[in-house]
Amino acid sequence: MSIRRAVLPLAAVYLALTACQKQTSSEPAPAAPAAPAPAAPAAPAAARGATGSGTIAGTVKLTGTPPEMQLTKRQADPYCAKTPVKEEEVVVGAGGGLKNVIVRVSKGVTGSYDPPAASATVDQSACMYRPRVQGIVLGQPVQIKNSDMTLHNIHGYKGASTLFNKAEIPGQPPMVQQFKDADQIVKLKCDVHPWMTGYVLVSSHPFFAVTGDDGSFKIAGLTPGSYTVEAWHERYGAKTAEITVAADKPAQAAFAFEAK
Amino acid sequence: MLLHPRVVHRFAVATAVATYLLILIGGLVHGTGSSLACPDWPTCYGSLMPKMEGGVLVEHSHRLAAATVVILTLALAGLLTASKDAGLRRLRPFGWMAVGLVFVQALLGGITVKLRLPTPISTAHTGTSLLFFLTLLYIAVRSRPAPAVVPATPPPSVARLALVAAVAIYFQMLLGGLVRHSGAALACTDVPLCRGSLWPDAHPTVLIQALHRLTGVAVALLVFASSALTLRRAWTRTGLRTLAISAPVLVIVQIALGIRAVTSFLDLATVESHLAGATALLATQVLIALRADPAAVPGPVTLGWFTSMVRLGKPRITGMVIITFLGGLWLAPGSIAHWRTIMTLIGTALLVAASNALNMYLERDADALMERTRDRPLPRAIVSPEAALAFGTGLSCVGIALVFLASNLLTGLLGMLAVAGYVAVYTPLKRTSGAAVFVGAIPGALPPLMGWTAVTGHLDAPGLALFGVLFLWQIPHFLAIAIYRGADYARAGFKVLPLTVSARVTRATMLVFSVVLVAVTIALEPLHVAGPRYALVAALLGAIFIGWAAAGFRRAAETRWARSLFFYSIVYLTLLFVALAIDRTVA
User: Fold this and answer.
1) ipTM of the predicted assembly exceeds 0.90
2) pTM of the predicted structure, to 2 decimals
3) Which of A2, A3, A10, A90 to mutate to probe the B interface, most B CBs <10 Å?
């Protein structure tokens, strides 16, 4: 018997094991939400996107006992250590509302949208990203500001790959970051202060919102129609819902994540 | 044929190579921030084949590659077990040890995901991965069919120095894992100094980074020495020569990559290469150690082997030394955090045990000749010299790291001085000079001073007086042993003082040191370490000590007197410390 004969059955068993996969993975990877397929490329995409008076409003809740957030372990940097701050991965408000969930229309919007004229800002303050989670429209510049008297580096990731990695010394004027690809959630990390984490949704359209302290959100300006709405949380992943928007009355959407 | 030794050897090599790649993928998981990309374990989003994108791609590839390595390891163990070749059958326990390690490793991987990456578990995951890799390397090298012409074997020092270097690299890599997992990778962004200092006055997280840099220099020197020795002694062995030339090159590349990792803010390719280089460097030293000494086969790892390893550390003596360490800690003014106390205590205990193990390694020939020591694990060949050497080196690495990180620079340096003084100065000096006892008393008296400096952080008169008490006490104590064990020492060729000078001089030395000892113990009162009631007890106990030592000048005094003085010295020290403790509690 040859070595190949011995290895092949093993390989076959292994392949059989790994092939027993569930094709219907309902939850996409947290850091890489499913990109909405623009209905058809080129010509229709270039068309101007429409806006209307339809809205989607609702809340995102966390069921179960929320995990306790510990103080960030920041003693290594004397500047940061002056301000004790807890982790903000899971922030639950009154009635179980989950903060910092990105709710966005992931399917059903066509056409292109101009970015807002004003730039967005990520402030590094007391060694935390402020805001921790926000969305921008593709083309909208993001100012990354260092309000701390300590060095930060801003390490942007798309999924597992590095988009940029720059340092910002105290007192340096804000650096301006542009993003090339739409419909991605960019993760911000500071390698000097490993507890610092932030997220920026880069959207191709303005139909998104980030939940507030009470877990509520509101997306406005939609034309009537059917949409797929995705709610994404940094720890609990993504959930989607099919929502029909009418012109006259706001559509309701509710999402619930389970604490685990 | 499937079980042909050459095929099994190649299969072992392939498994080791696969494991090397698996370690690199593991590094990518952390480097790309994908550790928690799959929230569940062992499946990812409940699936064996989730959508492979972003962090999931990296994390799940690591799991799939690990599953492949598990299967390869099981197959390898099976091949070794089924083999009829005597050489391969001897490797069976190592095959199953690898299987055990790979399952422990998988479990640690699972736990670290479930518990959301606690630093100790993640670092243990790094440590086990390397142990597993080393086991496979061992099988790969030792399963090699014997060549037709057996090459010349270099002297054992080549293999042993490489072994010491390998152990040091292993712990340096463990420290590197700690740097990553504790978030210390950019704890200082300046190079080579850390926050403007070799040892900044900063949080322990920063110190992990500073220590990794300093130990990196020590490891580099060790690898250079290992290569120089290998090249000098085994130039004709081309395999060893290639390894010995590659190792220093790898070291220089490693230092450059380590610096670049910091200056580039953890550029992924740089950090990943730093891991790849470290693992390769570890492999060079292990390969030199194994190939330079074809005979070295670790004995069967049984329960007896484990207890023998513990005996190498002399647990009872270590325990006694730890009590003196705690005495220093207790008496010192002020207090430190509990975790610092516990970690420094464990570190000091490991350093004492390491000194004992390395001393037994160096004296294994002499120990076989002495009645008192011939039952030790090394003379009885329960433990191989290589195992004792690796054990002692490993304990010192962990002990030094713990003391430096949990305590302070001064205490860490004193710990290093204690190990070096005991192993590198006192142990060899015992064979040449009766004065060795005065040198040996220094490392023996350092632990209580370390307890003191762990609290105060600096050397002062009371701390030094405490050191003095223990130093002075050891002279009559050990000379008493040397008198009643004289014949034994003579047989082993140790030049203890009573064998080199006259009985009168020995006894006079003991008396003089007893008098000075009693003076210093009483001086603890004016130094404000203890109160007048303690001083009274010290004076009383001391008077008896001096009287007992003086009794040695009686004509009839010989071994019985020496034995009784030895026992009284232990009672004396115990009561003295009890008096100190009570005095301190009452005050």
Assistant:
1) no
2) 0.90
3) A3
